[in-house]
Write a structure and sequence with these properties.
By secondary structure, the protein is mainly beta. The protein has two domains: 13-51, no CATH class; 85-175, Jelly Rolls (Sandwich), CATH 2.60.120. It is 0% helix and 30% strand. A hairpin with a 2-residue loop joins strand 2 and strand 3.
Amino acid sequence: MALNTIKSSSGITLTPQSAPPANPQNGDIYYDSGLNKLQAYQNGAWGDLGAGSGATGVQGVTGIAGVNGATGIQGTTGIEGPITSFKTANYTAVVNDFLGVDTSAGPFTVTLPATPSPNNQVRFADMGGALSVNNLTINGNGSNILGSASNFVADTNNIDFSVIYYNATRGWVVVN
């Protein structure tokens, strides 16, 4: 057994003390009754015995999720599915028509439904790619289009757009 070594198979009991021992030397140990901790003397100072960092503990359980925000307002359901009909001449549309229009033989007019309700819509797709030469005129049939009693003229090739009825003041609103 080495000099200044204590070995015990039944444990060692230290008597708690309220103050550190006088004239300590590196390696001295005592139990501080005020701190309720073992203290060790090293390089001129007393410190907690075993106060170094240990291994990282097990991560705790994830907390309960917070409350979600309110659900937003649902938008208008768009016209789905294939084109309902192809038009090359004047036509009066019905609600939820999806019209493939071809003005390559000449300009023509589509008249919108006469008594629309909010969220009614009609969709258009330029199939002939000739709207810039032969315009498609959209007639509001007594309702405003974009807040005006004037007709709407589609004059851009290869576009796909819808008109959705909003209210008596704005009337039909053009969206793409």
